[in-house]
Amino acid sequence: MRTYQELFRTPEFTPLFLTSAGQVAAQTVSGLALGTLVFTTTGSPLLSALAMFGPSLAQVIGATMLLSAADRLPPRATLAALSLLFALGMAAAALPGLPVPAVLGIVLGLGVFSALGGGVRLGLLNEILTKEGYLLGRSTINMSSGLMQIGGYATGGLLVAVLSPRGALLTGAALYLVAAALARLGLSKRPSRATGRASIGQTWRNNARLLSSPPRRTVYLALWVPNGLVVGCESLYVSYAPDRAGLLFAAGAAGMLTGDILIGRFVPRRWRSRLTVPLLLLLAVPHLFFFLGPALPVAAPLVALATVGFAASLISQERLMALTPDELSGHALGLHSAGMLTMQGVCALLAGAVAERTSPAMGITVLAAASVAVTLMLARGLRRAEEPVPESVPEAVVVVRTRAADAVPPSPGDPVGTDPA
């Protein structure tokens, strides 16, 4: 599957695409409104970053408790119910006089369920499309996310100025209701992908199985850490340019859109695996120039250039699916999404803490430098993880082969030819 025409002819892709776009629009408007509301109330970059990216931080709870349900719940009903829950949460956060700790509590509580939503949505995408079509489908959804973020941040900034942050939050709640309706009316009723009872124990066992493979671990780290640190940089845009933060976020969304188009549609498959490390470096290096405190006309192009590098995640997701059994696809993608967003929340807090002690510009620079360092440390392992693996080779043989390449002997309880989990 190489064309957008083929993609949108695939049954159910269009309603899933529209549902995802509605959720991103709601999240973008709500996130900017929450960050602005908390910053104007408290004057704290740390609390503002927590308001915007706290749901990401809370995903670690969902990843350790709820993810086994991603393949065991009917996708249509689950996606509609979660969007409705978020609509109610945003409406509650907009209540006049609600204390900031209560707002943050609502935000963090909703973040727990975001991990489940990510697993269900991405697992359904993998089910709807063939493995050859996953990258094009994922990049197309990413492109819609970029467009929704561009429009959402611009609209959110206008709504904050015209209606107030609470008015923008109510708009976000309405957009979540639209996403719920799109999921319920547009998607068909499908059975769950896996049988059995979802439980915390099953979630832990699946996580252990997925992380037992060294190639998958390396891919997960590449998906989680470098871009999480750069999102930490982004969490300081509100405190770096309080009145024009929406423009910086929109520039970042435009850069991400560009990268998704290039990698998802135009870069041949044989070249993609070579671009992971360069794209991760591109993601961080332009942010190093924030040390100079650039004005907005310079800062916005730097952000747009950097965020082209987010396309590295498309390549890594494609590789993750090649290394993952089909019955764990939803869980594996949910773990990727939850881990990535959790790391983004952690790094947003770290960035806020650095900015509290120094300045927003210094916080952006420090986290960008950390992202460069992590990417360089992962580079060798990523090259090995990207080596072709025949479809017929059992998972455990891949694990042992990778260990042998690293000169690490197998564990006594991990014989060749058996699943290490």
Distance between the termini: 33 Å
| Total number of beta strands | 0
Strand content: under 5%
* Topology as a string of helices (H) and strands (E): HHHHHHHHHHHHHHHHHH
Number of alpha- plus pi-helical segments: 18
User: Helix fraction?
Assistant: over 70%
Helix and strand composition category: mainly alpha
The average pLDDT value, as a whole number, equals 82
Q: Low-confidence parts lasting 5 or more residues at pLDDT below 50? A: 389-421
Report on the architecture of this protein.
The protein is mainly alpha-helical and 421 residues long. The protein has 18 helices and no strands. The chain has helices spanning 4-9, 13-42, 45-65, 75-93, 100-128, 131-163, 165-186, 200-211, 214-234, 237-240, 245-266, 269-272, 276-284, 296-307, 312-322, 329-357, 360-385, 395-405. The longest helix has 33 residues, at 131-163. The two termini are 33 Å apart.
